[in-house]
Design a protein that fits this description.
Strand order of the largest sheet: 1-2-3-4
Strand content: 5-15%
Structural class: alpha+beta
Shape: elongated
Helix content: 40-55%
Largest sheet: 4 strands, mixed
Number of helices: 7
Length: 233
């Protein structure tokens, strides 16, 4: 019993530390996060208390208002923390790979299947929508990378639809924070077995970066590829 209590205490302590760390990171990009959360919580609690006094049940309404205030504050905090995280990642090489890595079940993602020395990069995701090529970098240069990668996909898996998205804030591009939503909106045309077969065929083909280890998530700015490294086809 003592071991279970110790494990539970450690888990709760870990969650608390994570929340505090997330708040500190969010506050660096969102200076008003504390005031916003306080305003939301106080407003909701105040409204419920006022109603409680009017109808003669301030304690009952106060408890209900407290729970709703905490729930709403958690939701607001989560959304603003997510927005702050995307804001910090925006424009960093490899940021799209971090989003794809957390897109959810049903997708198999492979980062950096094509890259040039300017750090323009193409990532690949395979799901029931088919193959999705996600590019980030200079819009003009990534179009060349995308075209080459699409030709490769058409040679290997000609019967599977190939979509391409360019991450960015320009015209015709997908903002980083909307990338996951854009991919999930794509029509589902493949069955589970077809997705597995497509993934296996692509794995057998081998990836452009298979012999070069890459860090997960955004790569440090100014990172240079080693001599003799892969070039865009």
């Amino acid at each position: 019993m003592a071991r279970k209590d110790t494990a539970a205490d450690a888990a709760n302590s870990g969650r608390l530390k994570q929340i505090v760390l997330t708040y500190k990171m969010t506050r660096k990009a969102d200076k008003k996060i504390g005031l916003v959360l306080a305003a939301v919580g106080i407003s909701i609690l105040g409204v419920f208390l006022a109603i409680g006094f009017l109808i003669g049940h301030p304690i009952y309404l106060g408890i209900l208002g407290l729970f709703l205030a905490l729930l709403t504050m958690a939701i607001v905090f989560g959304r603003r923390a997510e927005r702050a995280a995307f804001g910090q990642m925006e424009g960093q090489p490899g940021a799209a790979a971090a989003v794809l890595d957390n897109i959810g079940r049903g997708w198999t993602t492979t980062p950096a299947v094509a890259m040039n020395r300017s750090q323009d990069v193409v990532h690949r995701a395979v799901g029931k929508a088919g193959i999705v090529l996600v590019a980030e970098g200079n819009p003009n240069r990534v179009k060349t990378l995308l075209a080459a990668e699409k030709r490769k996909m058409n040679r290997i898996v000609a019967d599977v639809p190939v979509h391409d998205l360019i991450v960015g804030t320009g015209e015709g591009q997908i903002p980083l924070k909307k990338l996951r939503t854009a991919m999930l909106k794509l029509p589902r045309v493949l069955t589970g077995p077809q997705v597995t077969a497509t993934t296996d065929r692509l794995r057998a083909m081998g990836d452009l970066m298979s012999n070069m280890p890459l860090p997960k998530g955004p790569m440090p700015k100014g990172m240079k590829l080693p001599k003799g490294g892969p070039k865009a086809r």
